[in-house]
Each structure stands twice: as structure tokens, then as C-alpha cells.
Predict the structure of Prephenate dehydratase.
Amino acid sequence: MVVGTTRYAYLGPEATFTEAAALRLPAVAGERLDPHPTVHAAIAAVRTGEATGAVVPLENSVEGSVNATLDELIRGEALAISAEVLLPVTFVLMARPGTDLGSVRRIVTHPVAEAQCRTWVSTKLPDAVVELGSSTAAAAVAVAESAPGADGHPYDAAIAAPLAGERYGLDTLAHDIGEDAEALTRFVLVSPPRTPTAPTGSDKTSLVAYIRDDHPGALLEILEQFATRGVNLTRIESRPTGNGMGRYCFAIDFEGHVADARVGEAMMGLRRVCADVRFLGSYPRADGVRPPIRQGTSNADFRDAAAWLEQLRG
Ligand SMILES: O=C(O)C(=O)C[C@]1(C(=O)O)C=C[C@@H](O)C=C1
């Protein structure tokens, strides 16, 4: 296989769900992929210029947002999201060959995976403890590297992607142990700020809104900007800004592209009512959905209204 020269960072080690997601992104597949131990390290590689972009998890359909990623986007030097990918996530309990299920006492995995497999673990292995690691693949490595009975390598089993078991020589003790067989994780390609790709008709836009001062209705004012222009939100998350107790901002994803009139008008509204708005990017939706445009909110409707006003003003 020929490997390109452009470097992309991802949450590693090899065989994380993030690596699988990276391989599905046309911009990234075929390029050089560098694993990093944490989301922070993968994104730091972008900020220092060592990598062109980083593939990181942003949101899981069961567990919600991945705060480590969200906080990198909210704080520090500005970044952009240039692509997204949705990946089905199925979890396997894996152990060194020869381990039997009944002897599993200590399990290691990523917090997002732990949340999705909690019911299975508490039902099938009620005496087992689950410890948290930096990724599901790192958990598989930790298990693979612990010779049975060796001191300092306390894990009996890992919860990870089926691919991690194959990559690190572990046997599967139980398949599909996640609560939701349909679970999906949304991954994004993060790069330095850039001009968005052209609108496709099936786009999403992400931004962070920082409220001006703590006052009644601050969130309502933000939501109004979208509601009156017919822009549908797909996610809104409040996160601390990191600058003092009670200071929050809102990370918002919505349907449409910054080039769409209704999106542009909503963003201008935000700019007027917020202390700051950090535009993260407009990019094609991974699910390919083309949302309906409500009456009165198409580009033509906004153009017509602007022309009408011009005419009134003479
Ligand atoms: O640990 C991994 O394999 C990852 O890619 C991270 C991650 C996440 O943070 O959401 C990705 C998908 C799974 O839901 C669990 C963990």
C-alpha cells in the first residue's frame, strides 16, 4: 500500500474506533496516520503544525458528547471542523488466550465504552470492576501486555472494537455487549481555521456562542436567532469556558451551510447578541440528509425580502 506524505493525527493506538473512522474519510485515507495517546495530544499536533488535521470522536448516540474534544474546540487557539463521519460501534469483551469468562475480575476500557456496556457487565460479571483508560485500543494493549499473574499488569479483560482483539492477539469472550446494537459515534476531522467547502445541500455547521453577560433569557436570545430563520439545531451543549465558576458557552451544531442565507442571517444575529461567536465550519453531513427548507427561509425568500426593503428605502 502506498502511503501519502500528508500527516493526520488520530486518537490511538492502532485499532481504535477513531482509526476505523479516519480510514473512512476520503481526505485522510491513503495518507500517513499518526496515533496519539489522547484527544489533546492529537489536536496539539494540529496546533503545532506537525499534522494537517486530527480525527477525534465528538459525539456518541448513547453517551452524548466527548468533552475532551469539545473543550479543545471551545478553548485555546481556534480550530475548524472540515468533515464528519458516523461509525457504528460494537463492543467485544476480550482477554488473553486461555482466560475464561468466569475468572474475569478486572476490566479496562474507554469511559464512553464503559457507559455503553455497563448493563452487560453488571448482569454477567457482577463482581468485576471496570477501570478507565485513554481509548478502547489502549485497553486491549494493556491486557495483551500483561503476562498472566505478572505484577503491575492487573487487567483480565478489555472492552474494545473487534479489530483491536485481532490486532493485539486477544480472544473474544463475549460479542456485542453494548446496550444499543445501533450505537453510532460521530467523529470529526479537525484542522486549522480554513475556508469551508462549497455547500452540497446536505451540510452541517458548527459554532460556539459565548454569552455576553449572565442575564435572564441569554440562551433564549441565542435560540431565537435560529428559530426565526428556520434553522434546525442538531445538538446544543453547554460547557464551562474555563474562565471562572458559572461561565458557560454553548457548542451548537445545526443544519445548513454558512453560505445559506438563513444560516448567515442567524449567525449575524448571534454576532449581535453574544460576546463572541467562534465559527467552527460548514461541512457535508455524514448521513446525507437534505433537510426540508421551511417556507419563507430559502435563499430566494431572503433575496426577495432584501430587494423589497431596498425598494422601500428608495
Ligand atoms: O477508544 C476508542 O476506540 C475511540 O475511538 C474513542 C471512543 C470515544 O471516545 O467515543 C470512540 C467510540 C466508542 O464509542 C468509544 C470510545
Summary: The domain at 195-314 is CATH 3.30.70.260 (Alpha-Beta Plaits). The pocket of prephenic acid is lined by residues 11, 16-18, 57, 60, 66, 89, 110, 112-113, 135-137, 185 (CB under 6 Å). The first strand starts at residue 7 and ends at 11. Confidence is low (pLDDT under 50) at residues 147-151.
